[in-house]
Design the sequence.
């Protein structure tokens, strides 16, 4: 067999190798998908905002020249354009694919936990167009949700087409999501980590998805940047450095404010959905138009909250915005985002979260610089750190938030304050407060990991831990007469009875089912039948140092309720009888112990 043939045989039979190979394909599609989405989004924005309203939103330094835009030429059209964008988006979504409603990352999380990783094939296409219409018409939303669903949708479809397992489909779906995010934000490491971390509220990763997500993200990032020519970070910042220890308490304070702002953000976001739009007696198709109308009304007075808003964060870091405007954007952006997405509009929450966090940090940096100019010499650093601290709390993703912001800004000189603020923001934001409501607390709580957790627990319990300490099994000698056997069996709860040799080693076993018939027999001579005559033809045992997962496999293979336990694999010394009930009790005790530790 040739080397190529042997390699292909290994790939086909080795799950990780197969996933890595397919992750390259997923990354290619996600990279081109990100390019297509950006093209559609730019077209929608140029048509509706630039040409119709006469308002060109500023861009971050890595995506074009950042200049202060003039006011909208036809400001009054802001009452119309976002509403039209919301209406068309709502009609498309709720007529064709209702799952494309809202922010796509949460839908991806739900698919992982509750839908075996299945995403309908039409979702990426609908999400692309609907989100481009929502954002391009001025809606306050981001690119992360749509492109995450594009990559995740293809990963799910590819796994389904190849008849892969549910587990493999989930992992390819995560790889696709990480690839899409890594490409569109030019943050391959952060995107891959985000896809594996965002599933849980606690500090846990879906570790099995990391390698496929890394491969897919690298592939998509290379394609996206290579074709678009946009290499490097999204934001253009000066050489920011952490160089004064007295800044550390201020960064802790920033983490506290980010946690407070994040709590308000999430409560407003879902409060608007549950207490406003869910109670409006109108079809879901038209509710995004109402949200767009409200956003347009806000934009009439404060157009800085329209669209994604990265350009305004860039201007704040460059020192071109007044403190009052920075605070205003941070606060009003919360309401604009809630009205856009909670009404049923399609778009992500990553970009708005970055803007709110960045503006919160910029405001604090400006205040601290005024109070302590000798200590806080670079207020822009607080804007950068605020983005990570805020999103770490509301998304419950501190590690990927830190990495993504570092990649998006090249702010590696601020790693120490980034670590401090993200940890503070994450820890101080209440556990139940998350912008992704389909997150579960931990891997233990995910239906996707029930089987894995069960096997993990069972493999950590030895038979000696499951066997009752007071176990004193009923045993017989080879020459024990039937009458004594029947008398002992009638008062015992055992179903399997070891039979011993003269030296106390096990000669075999007697199963209760094999001697049931003798309870009705009459007139047999006292020693006509002895234990030796009743031995089962096949004997299966478990040993003390064996794990109960292995014991359960033997229960299934033998179809028995109990098995004799020997001291070791090569031993014939009986030490007890293990039942399925003993295994269940040991498992429950271990799970309770695990939950108590948490």
Sequence:
């Amino acid at each position: 067999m040739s080397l190529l043939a042997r390699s292909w045989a290994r790939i086909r039979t080795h799950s990780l190798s197969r996933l890595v190979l397919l992750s390259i394909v997923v990354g290619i599609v996600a990279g081109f998908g990100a390019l297509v989405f950006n093209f559609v989004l730019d077209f929608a924005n140029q048509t509706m905002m630039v040409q119709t309203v006469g308002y060109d939103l500023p861009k971050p330094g890595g995506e074009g020249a950042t200049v202060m835009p003039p006011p909208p030429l036809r400001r009054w059209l802001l009452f119309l354009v976002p509403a039209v964008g919301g209406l068309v988006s709502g009609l498309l979504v709720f007529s064709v694919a209702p799952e494309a409603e809202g922010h796509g990352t949460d839908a991806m999380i739900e698919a992982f936990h509750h839908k075996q990783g299945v995403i309908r094939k039409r979702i990426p296409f609908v999400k692309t167009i609907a989100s481009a219409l929502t954002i391009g018409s001025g809606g306050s939303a981001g690119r992360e949700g749509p492109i995450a669903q594009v990559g995740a949708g293809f990963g799910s479809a590819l796994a389904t087409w190849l008849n892969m397992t549910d587990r493999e489909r989930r992992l390819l779906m995560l790889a696709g999501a990480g690839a899409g995010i890594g490409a569109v934000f030019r943050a391959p490491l952060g995107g891959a980590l985000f896809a594996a971390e965002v599933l849980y509220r606690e500090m846990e990763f879906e570790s099995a998805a990391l390698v496929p997500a890394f491969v897919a993200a690298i592939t998509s990032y290379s394609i996206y940047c290579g074709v678009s020519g946009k290499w490097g970070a999204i934001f253009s910042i000066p050489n920011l450095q952490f160089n004064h220890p007295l800044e550390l308490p201020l960064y802790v304070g920033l983490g506290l404010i980010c946690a407070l702002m994040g709590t308000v953000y999430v409560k407003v976001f879902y409060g608007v959905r549950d207490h406003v739009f869910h109670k409006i007696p109108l079809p879901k198709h038209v509710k995004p138009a109402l949200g767009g109308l409200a956003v347009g009304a806000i934009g009439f007075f404060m157009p800085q909250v329209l669209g994604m808003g990265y350009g305004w964060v860039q201007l704040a870091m460059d020192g071109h915005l007044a403190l009052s405007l920075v605070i205003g954007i941070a606060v009003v952006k919360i309401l604009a985002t809630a009205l856009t997405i909670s009404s049923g509009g399609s778009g992500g929450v990553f970009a708005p979260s970055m803007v709110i966090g960045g503006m919160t940090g910029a405001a604090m940096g400006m205040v601290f610089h005024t109070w302590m100019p000798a200590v806080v010499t670079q207020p822009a650093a607080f804007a950068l750190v605020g983005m990570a601290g805020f999103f770490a709390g509301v998304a419950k993703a501190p590690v990927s938030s830190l990495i993504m912001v570092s990649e998006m800004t090249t702010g590696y000189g601020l790693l120490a304050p980034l670590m401090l603020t993200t940890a503070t923001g994450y820890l101080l934001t209440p556990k139940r407060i998350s912008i992704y409501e389909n997150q579960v607390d931990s891997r233990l709580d995910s239906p996707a990991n029930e089987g894995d957790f069960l096997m993990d627990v069972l493999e950590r319990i030895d038979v000696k831990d499951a066997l009752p300490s007071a176990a004193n099994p009923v045993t017989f000698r080879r020459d024990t007469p039937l009458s004594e056997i029947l008398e002992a069996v009638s008062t015992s709860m055992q179903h399997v009875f070891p039979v011993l040799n003269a030296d106390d080693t096990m000669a075999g076993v007697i199963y209760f089912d094999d001697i049931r018939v003798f309870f009705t027999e009459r007139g047999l001579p006292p020693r006509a039948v002895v234990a030796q005559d009743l031995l089962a033809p096949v004997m299966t045992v478990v040993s003390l140092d064996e794990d109960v997962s292995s014991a359960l496999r033997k229960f299934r293979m033998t179809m028995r309720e109990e098995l004799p336990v020997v001291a070791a694999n090569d031993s014939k010394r009986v030490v007890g009888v293990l039942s399925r009930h003993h295994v269940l009790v040991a498992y429950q005790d271990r799970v309770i112990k695990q939950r108590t530790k948490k």
In short: The longest helix spans residues 15-53. The chain has 23 helices and six strands. The domain at 454-597 is CATH 3.10.580.10 (CBS-domain). The chain has a mean pLDDT of 87.
